[in-house]
Structure formats: structure tokens, C-alpha cells
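Student: Please help interpret what follows.
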Amino acid sequence: MFTTDWKPNKSSPIPIHKQITDYIKEKISNGEWTVGYRLPPQRTLAKELGVNRSTIVTAYDELIADGLIEGKSGSGTRVVNNTWNLLATTPPPDWNSYVKVGTHKPNLPTIQEINQAEFIPNIIRLGTGELSPNLIPSASMKKIFHQLANSEISYGYEEPKGLLSLREQISNYLSTIGISASPSSILIVSGALQALQLISVGLLHRDSTVLTEKPSYLQSINVFQSAGMRLVGIPMDKDGIQTNLIQQYNKQQKAALFYTIPSFHNPTGTLMTAKRRQQLLDICQQEQLPLIEDDVYRELWFDESPPKPIKSFDKNGLVLYLGSLSKSLSPGLRIGWIVGPEPVVEHLADIKMQTDYGSSSLSQWAAVEWFSSGLYYKHIKEVREQLKIRRDFTLTRLNKYFSNIAVWQKPTGGFYIWLRLLPSLSMRKLFEIALSEGILLNPGNVYDHQSEQYLRISYSFASLLDIDDGLKRLAKIIKSIAE
């Protein structure tokens, strides 16, 4: 998805196509658009700049004549020279080739489009998995940072595992949910995603297989794939992962580990039962299959707290437990944690020191204040109440607008409703039309390529007014495509 802050000046005496030509030449000569860079399609650029397609055609033709770009059928229009290269005997490096062979794979194209579209002004984000700005306790956050400014705290690097006082607070918190973990077995990370990155490069071999739920959030990011891993999904039912299939899959795949989100699963919202959690741990112990328990949504329950974490039953150090403040408090704080056997935690801490030399010390001190003051627990109670209101409202809107075109289950916590569309239609077409009308979706196929008829609907981010307006207009779009 191409976006730019620049627009041609339609009141200027310089012809529009000339302004566009100069703009592209500047991008090329400044090295922003390097040799091999693929220019946006003519229709896309025309729409973004608010001009006729014929104007773009004229501009492109002029650049082709100058030898700067080249258009080929089937592969689009690319930069083939820059203004210095036309004069030089030695061509500049083809940075595009470096990008292609880099170790870390780019996000899925749809995920890239979503990440960019989230910053379009006034867009309705029906799939965004984070707290609404209205649910983030800005006033309390400012108060805590003000207190820190008048406190004796360190502004330098913390020790490799993270600020000791924060690990002590997290140890106390974990004891309230049944997990016994000393501060020495806890590593502070910059969110659960960094935890997965550290695990992928620090504990797994290339060509390893990772088992997970099907569908899974893990399929929407390339953190394991970039480290040379292969993801294999195991079907779920209303109680969570179908544990009776794990041994069969593991026998076929010889997996290195199992990854699960047992509490208010992303993207389905499923809550794994206590019985299923115990079965999962028992089978993983039998199979000697290490388990990653991603529990970042745990505190976002509505009517009753979820079953105890799988980690709470782990007596053999089989489970690596991931937690975070990103979903419950603030994504900008960038505070998460890994709990596991001390040798593993120490190894991951060493790798983390090689990558960023530790998470933000200021954020860690702020997190200590949130826990030690009791404000975090008070905030969580308020967030649960607000999310429940949002969930109930969203369900009423779905019943009003989607009763004859989709089916879904009522989540008991978390952010998400896993919506299955009844009409058979192109999810890509739906995504593009909705985006053109100011509605941003999270298609199911980014979480599982077979979930083509699903949408992840989130009630956590958009305002109630936007949820109503967005779902109403989305239903009309779906019906128009299905006709």
C-alpha cells in the first residue's frame, strides 16, 4: 500500500505532470527510491495524489525517456538508474537485492497494509488488537512519571534480566495466579513479541517445526519463519486446542515446541478449559515437547477469572510463560516478561543484551510503580468493566446487521470476536472495498490461509459510535459483493 505526504500544487503554473516528474526524480536522486525499487501502479499513484491517471502516464513516460525508470509487463515499473548513475561508470549498489536476501522476512502484504492504514485519519479500525486511547489511564500514567521525576531512580542500563524491583513485583503478581517464580527466573522484555524473537533465535534450530493452534496469531507474524522455522496448526474446538491430535501431529512433524494462547485466544477469543490445559501439559510432558504459554490477555476476563495458567501445574520446567502490560495497560510502555527455568532465562537475557542492551529503564521503573501502588489492579478492574460494555454493544450490533450473513460465538474476555461470513466471497475484494470506504479489517486468512471466510472483529479499540457505523456499512458492503 503506497502512501505519501506530498501532493502536487494545483494552483502552481508548473504543469501537474511536471511536478510529479520532479517529485519522483528527487526521490530517486536522494537515494530514497533505489535501483530496483518498484514504483506504485499508475492508478494507485493517481488516487493517492488526487490526479487523473493520464497525468501519471505522462509523468512515467517522461521518466522512462530519461532512462530513470523502466516498465515491464507483469513486473510493474521499476527504478533502473539514478541521475548520478547516468553519469558514472560504476553503478551504485542495488539495495533492493539486499532487502530480498535479508534474514528477516517482511510482514505479510496484508499485514503491511494494515500497519500503514492504521494511521489514516478517521479510519474505523474494526480489527485492531489494542486498548482504545480512552481505556489507557493517561492521567495516572502522567502522575507516575511525575513521581519518578522526583525520585531517586537510575536512568542507565539495568542488569541483563531487568530491574530487580520489577522482577520482584512480577514474582508477587504471578503468585496470585498460581505461578511460583523467583525473580531470578524472570526476564523483562519489550513486550511478548520480543520474547518470541528471543526464543526463535536463542532456543531453536533452523528447519524446526513449531506446533500451534489453527488459526493462530503466530501465523500473522514472521518471527519464527524468519528464523527458519515451520509452523503447523492443530484444529481447535470450543474448549481450545484438540489435544487428542497433538501426538499424531508431533509424530508426523517431530516438533521442537508447542505455542499456545490459552486465555481469550487471538484471533478466536476461545478460552481453554482447565481440563484441556491439564491435558495439554500432560501430553507435552509425554512427548517431551516444550510449551510456550502466551498469556497476555489473561486479566481481561468479564464474568469470572480464567482457569489457572498451564505454568502453574508445571513441575518440570517444561513451560515458558509470557506475560505483558501491552494489552492490559499500555502498548507504549513496552513491558513484558518471560518466566522459565533459570538457565533458559539467563541464556535469553544474554541474547537480549546483544540486541538492545535491555528494555527501557524508565518504563521498568514506571511498571514498578503501577504494581507496588496497587494502581494496576484498580485499572484492570475498570478495563474489564469497559471491555464488557464494548463486547455487549458489539454483539447487539452484530445481531442487528449480521444475523443473516455471519455466525459467531460470544467471548468471555479478551478483545476479539471470530466472525465467519456465510456468503462465499473474495476476502481480498472485501478488504480493499472496505478500506476505500474508511473501514480497516483484519481478514482471517492472515491467521490461517484456510480461514478465508473469517474476520477478526475487535471491540477494544474503536469507539462505540465507530463500531456501530463500521459494522452497519460493512454489512452493506458484504451483501453488495455477495449479490
Q: What stands out?
A: The mean pLDDT is 91. The radius of gyration is 25 Å.
